[in-house]
Amino acid sequence: MKPEQVDHVIYGNVIHTEKNASYLNKEKTNVHGGAIALGHPVGVSGARILLSVARELRRRQGKYAIASLCIWGGQGIATVIERV
Q1: Which residues pair with 78 in a beta bridge?
Q2: If exposure means fewest CB atoms within 10 Å of the residue's CB, which of 47, 65, 75, 84 is most exposed?
Q3: How many CB atoms lie within 10 A of CB 84?
Q4: What's the pTM value of the predicted model, to 2 decimals?
């Protein structure tokens, strides 16, 4: 998959990511904020991010989206979803 194939991207901490990934399109990145925008509620932010990215993908009629999620203790995971 190439960056231009991704229709929407959402990160928990987009400030660091945008600084180091100049190829990201700001029209597609964290358009409604990440987990930190909601106060990063423990145990809820992953579900919120996945639901938000899925809804935005449907709204924009996109095909793929990427979400990065905090999984506690300084760990993280990235998920690619496809709208079918």
Answers
A1: 68
A2: 84
A3: 4
A4: 0.61
